[in-house]
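SAMPLE LOG
Freezer: B-3
Tube label: C17
Construct: single chain, 757 aa
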Amino acid sequence: MTSVSLRRDFLTRPIFSWARKVMPEMSDTEREAFEAGDVWWDADLFTGSPDWSKLLAYPPARLTAEEQAFLDGPVNELCGMLDDWAINWELRDLPPEVWEFIKRNKFLGMIIPKEHGGLDFSPYAHSEVVRKVSSRSCAAGVTVMVPNSLGPGELLMRFGTKEQQARWLPRLADGREIPCFGLTSPDAGSDAASMIDNGVVCKGTFEGREVLGLRLNWHKRYITLGPVATLLGLAFKAYDPDGLLGSDKDLGITLALIPAHLPGVEIGRRHLPSMQVFQNGPNWGKDVFIPMDFVIGGTERIGEGWKMLMTALAAGRGISLPSLSAAAAVYCARTTGAYARIREQFNVPIGKFEGVEEPLARIAGTAYLLDAARRLTCAALNEGRHPAVISGIMKLHATERMRIAVDDAMDVHGGKAIIDGPQNYIGNLYRAVPVGITVEGANILTRNLIIFGQGAIRAHPYLLTEMTALGDADQVRGLAAFDHAFWAHVGHTVTNIFRAFGRSWTRGAFAPAPEAGPATLFYRQLSRHASSFALCADMALLTLGGALKRKEMLSARFGDILSELYLLSAALKRWEDEGRQAADFPALEWCMASGFKTIEMRFSDILANLPNRFVATLLKFVMQPFGARAVGPSDALVHRVAQLILEPSEARERLTPNLSHIDDDRGLARLEKAFALVTANEDIAKKMRTARVRDWRDALRNGVITQSEADRLAAAHDAVSKVIEVDDFAPEALSLGHAKLHEGRKYPQDVNARVAS
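STRUCTURE (predicted):
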């Protein structure tokens, strides 16, 4: 008898038997969610000792020449066609010519392969298109985004039969079919297992022939593009009461394609989600019969719908909303920095006040971080990966941090951002934020249950193997697999105890890091925190077991730490990929200081609330012997970061790239013009400040400035006056608009705003 068999029979077997009894039962939807997608850099972070050379070796996401040409051509042309005020308050929709342009130029088929008539763009190109279009119009951004994310196109590409792909993908690519996907119903939001939408296997007549199919009944709501969709993707529970497909009666969640013209399909009226006018609404089906070849993937895919959805979502959730959110943060950085530079109070640009510098720095740092994470995630997706945990991190933190950036932008702009009208370039973005927070998995659920709950199982080096072994019906095989994984897990934990102890007591001084100039220290701190995270997660799993699933606040804090580790890794990767730009280093340093503070505070909260107080005390001794010491960005750093968006520079352009710039004499175009004029005249303004003269006319009369300089200042003054103007409306126009809104009609196109100082 070998030492391994002795260990297995006398040590492992009792543990194996005990663990099988106490392991909580996993629902089918939970199991399929865990099996969907794959792992990537999150798995390295879970080891406790991430390999930084691997991160830095990942090729950055790049556009092909064809993708760049599309951005420079059709995307810019589309942006020029978009009037966000008219779309939201007059038309309540995209204009017909915009819909036609989107379809004709295959915006709805960016991800569809060329063999089926699509553009076959990379995830990064998809992200860049959404980013630029949404910086011009949220409604247009969502319209372009949704068909290329979770929906019939993505599902057909991954799971459809060859016949389904040949039939539907060309029609989706060129806009002959407008898709939507129906998942959410009044009875099932986040809990998909509780949906009552159903399909019963039966025989029926379709196009004059009796065929085997499904009779469907459903009620869906919140369906983006639903009111204009011609092809519905539908999630429902399939049942086979007569055994026409076999012995199983309850077949599980299934996905199918439903042409909207079929008898029994009813497309409802429109929702108005937070005053956003992208097409969204409910739909119903009453005894809708479809043949089996309308099931995505055919009969063999019946019951696999939830796994299919989770696999598709693992990619789409990492692109769409993170792209829109990153664009919003960058947009806020550019506009708020410019506004704070040109808007003066007490003869001083408001951006010079320390109280304003703090939100400016937060906006700039957030913009740097989110775009870094977006690029890194797209790099993974470009390689064909589908990192489910990372996609959840991106959806949650991109939308939450977008909310912070937009709130800060509103605070700095003050009344300028509150008074609605064509000159307001922030207000509609503010209203759109709750939509991003809620869709594709509500953020509360994602933070408390998904990121760490899924990450601990999928990304942990051994846990999924152990769980699979415990659930193996063949106990002999399961015991052998469990024995190997369990003792490897023990060795991993012991290693992390010593690793975390050494790195924590030395404050990461000797933790592994690449040679990265002034950023080397940041890598060391992340290595330190990664080892503490791996150890603390293992101890929580050991002491709480399946009960950790119900400790949602603890799970949320672990998820926050894992998220910060990923986001900060992305910021370091960006700084490296962009050539270690010294001028950008304050933004990187702000991200690190803020992230380290969050990590240490979350560790402190976990240790204060871990139920096993003995283990919590030991962990505190190992991981936080000196308590939570990180204090966040210093005042001096905040000042340096705020300056990045207050003055023209290459650093500002790198921080706020590839937004839509249309010279339409509206709010944003006026702001860009005024910012350029004001900053170009800074030398003249300094002369006036030195002479203690506030008005340029007095400066001209007193000989402080020349006539040419006075003309330049006058032009800048006029440009600033146009920026700070806000809109007002005739009372009858607003009353009419209010009445029409309550009748469910569009605003008349002749309701125009009058600009007033």
